[in-house]
Amino acid sequence: ELKVEQNPLFLSMQEGKNYTIYCNYSTTSDRLYWYRQDPGKSLESLFVLLSNGAVKQEGRLMASLDTKARLSTLHITAAVHDLSATYFCAVEGDGGGADGLTFGKGTHLIIQP
Amino acid sequence: EPEVTQTPSHQVTQMGQEVILRCVPISNHLYFYWYRQILGQKVEFLVSFYNNEISEKSEIFDDQFSVERPDGSNFTLKIRSTKLEDSAMYFCASSIGPYTDTQYFGPGTRLTVL
């Protein structure tokens, strides 16, 4: 069974600080996705990481993938209040076909002014 | 910008009733998915659909569930006899292809089973 574990599950931080969210997974997949979800809303795609060593950045967010360690990180630089949301990582199954995503439990991020 | 749409936004039903949740995927996408999220919990994969047939399904997707693409635009999820534990947010998603393409999620349908 594919497992995706995120930590921390809850994070409260102050504006201007840096922090990293970790995502460990149990499969050999080299495809990993990060999504953002605001309360009561749908999931917004942030990053798609498709190979070992992949690094992508968008604004204050940077995601990386280490497939050998089965680890992805989402780094937040100089956090601002607008980044408050729940962040999910997800991994695609390796069973072939249009595999569904297996999500982590999410990291609930609160950024305080 | 093209987006996935879902109707209704909220559905309330009695236990044992049938419900149909509707989705219109992005027009040039070929792969379609249903996920659910029980309140406060993680998103769970239900089923994927390609070329008018189920490609993959999870353990959650039992005989009570079915999917259909009745025409060229709609993608539906039917729950035949709803249970209390079916109460959740149901998300439809679509992608151009499998594997490397982003799955774009719709706004969701909140299903409440009484």
Topology overview:
The complex is a heterodimer of chains A (113) and B (114).
Chain A (H helix, E strand, L loop, with lengths): L3 E4 L2 E5 L4 E7 L6 E6 L5 E7 L5 E4 L2 E6 L4 E6 L8 E8 L8 E3 L3 E6 L1
Parallel strand pairs in A: 2-11
Antiparallel strand pairs in A: 1-3, 3-8, 4-5, 4-9, 6-7, 7-8, 9-10, 9-11
Chain B lengths: L4 E3 L2 E4 L5 E6 L6 E7 L5 E8 L2 E5 L7 E4 L6 E5 L8 E8 L8 E2 L3 E5 L1
Parallel strand pairs in B: 2-11
Antiparallel strand pairs in B: 1-3, 3-8, 4-5, 4-9, 5-6, 7-8, 9-10, 9-11
Q: Radius of gyration of chain B, rounded?
A: 13 Å
Gross geometry of chain A: globular
Instruction: State the helicity of chain B in percent bands.
Output: under 10%
Number of strands of chain B: 11
Net shape of chain B: globular
Task: Please tally the helical runs of chain B, counting DSSP H or I stretches of 4 or more residues.
Answer: 0
Q: Which series of helices and strands of chain A comes N to C?
A: EEEEEEEEEEE
Termini of chain A, distance in Å? 41 Å
Question: Strand fraction band of chain A?
Answer: over 45%
Q: Got a strand count of chain A?
A: 11
Low-confidence stretches of chain A: none
Mean pLDDT of chain A: 90
Helix/strand order of chain B: EEEEEEEEEEE
What's the story with the biggest beta sheet of chain B?
A: 7 strands, mixed
Describe this entry's structure for a reader.
- The complex is a heterodimer of chains A (113) and B (114).
- Chain A has 113 residues and is mainly β.
- Chain A has strands at 4-7, 10-14, 19-25, 32-37, 43-49, 55-58, 61-66, 71-76, 85-92, 101-103, 107-112.
- In chain A, a hairpin with a 2-residue loop joins strand 6 (55-58) and strand 7 (61-66).
- Chain A is globular.
- With 114 residues, chain B is an all-beta fold.
- Chain B is built from no helices and eleven strands.
- In chain B, the strands form two sheets. In chain B, strands 2, 4, 5, 6, 9, 10 and 11 form a seven-stranded mixed beta sheet that branches. A four-stranded antiparallel beta sheet of chain B has the order 1-3-8-7, with no helix packed on it.
- In chain B, strand 4 (31-37) and strand 5 form a beta hairpin.
- Classes of the chains: A mainly beta (113), B mainly beta (114).
